[in-house]
Design goal:
Its main location: mitochondrion. It is a single chain. Helices cover about 75% and strands about 5% of the residues. It is an all-alpha fold. The chain has a two-stranded antiparallel ribbon with strand order 1-2. Helix 1 runs antiparallel to helix 2. It is elongated. The two termini are about 40 Å apart.
Length: about 240
Amino acid sequence: MLRVFPYGALQFVSYEQYKKILTPLCDNCAASKLISGSLAGLTACTLTYPLDVVRSRLAFQVADEEIYCGVCHAIQQIFTTEGGFCALYKGYGATAVSMIPAVGFGFLAYETFKEAMLAIKGTLTKTNKETGETVLSPLGGLVCGAMAGASSQTVAYPLDVVRRRMQLAGAVADGHKYSGCISTFVTVYTEDGLRKGLYRGLSINYMRVVPQVAVMFSVYEITKQVLNDSTVNARSE
């Protein structure tokens, strides 16, 4: 939770700001959405990555092999025993690369599905009473978010596997094998293959990520509509 709050806030705020800068340059093209999403994910990831490493370590340890007592203790142990500040950014390279398909493609997919639904004007859209424009309904936001989450995770999952292996390198006996992004990718593929290696756990990841992203984008859409309505009402008054 300590990681999710700042990560989500930074991701959406920075996405809107990057989009304002890039959209006029290519007339709201797909590239502007992809780049804006990628930069937003990279910005949020860079500022919260140490907490992601800590989360992986705390989730990995079991009761009879407890190494870390909590968030602060995990940060202290990783910092003092594994190489200082750089240890808190293990796997950052793979994560940074994965921001393009994971977050960048996620935002692009969401915006694309949203535009398609708004053009159809079916049961997943509604008319905004304040502005008269067609907007997504809460269910429409969930559907677009779910499809965007599934699409982006399918593309980015191998890099997520690489990131996790590198984050856990200091907590497992054979962690020396996971020293760099490319070498870790090659090691996982060579030892376990594609389905049981780079895509291992994808199905359960769908069960976790798809509803998460669906709710995230739906709340994002509803919040934007509420804020826009508030702005319109304030101006009319």
